[in-house]
Design a protein that fits this description.
Largest interface: A-B, 25 and 28 residues
Structural class of chain A: mainly beta
Number of strands of chain B: 11
Number of helices of chain A: 0
Largest sheet of chain A: 7 strands, mixed
Strand content of chain A: over 45%
Shape of chain A: globular
Order of helices and strands of chain A: EEEEEEEEEEE
Radius of gyration of chain B: 13 Å
Shape of chain B: globular
Number of helices of chain B: 0
Oligomer: heterodimer
Helix content of chain B: under 10%
Number of strands of chain A: 11
Chain lengths: 113, 110
Amino acid sequence: NAGVMQNPRHLVRRRGQEARLRCSPMKGHSHVYWYRQLPEEGLKFMVYLQKENIIDESGMPKERFSAEFPKEGPSILRIQQVVRGDSAAYFCASSHGHPGELFFGEGSRLTVL
Amino acid sequence: QKEVEQDPGPLSVPEGAIVSLNCTYSNSAFQYFMWYRQYSRKGPELLMYTYSSGNKEDGRFTAQVDKSSKYISLFIRDSQPSDSATYLCAMSPPTGKLIFGQGTTLQVKP
């Protein structure tokens, strides 16, 4: 009964490279959320997706960031041309659609050199 | 003004103490109120959720929501060193995203 699976757990990129973070939701969950957490800060909402649809991307930076949740396969958060300020922990959560029951993965920690 | 305010602490208590963690919010549309626990370098773990106002108890944990005051609380009875973690409040309207507080770091000393 696997939970939310994220990979890679740790990712190191140099400035200007691309980062791809993957999230497989819990079995039966079709709603995926991405959050970013900076040191000593809470979780900041980035994007909410259902299968093949972006529902709310109000927390996504306007440039360089994109997300998808295809019909088959994991959700992907893509960061192009990374900068040092992108260094953070990125968490994925999934749910059936009930806002009171979001379950989080262990996160992907991105370090930009 | 942030939508959700939470005192970051840190909060240090002796083992066995009653811990009170609190958040205030400004958005009247919030209907779902959650508490998550996060250990260092781990993902947030859902502890409790409450719909609308009222109390909810689960073992040593009690969650309270006062919508008239826009104030929520989490009480931990008989606190244990294993409760040492960051506690995050979160809330959402009936549909849409969770908004998190900054988190309160709790240390329970043996």
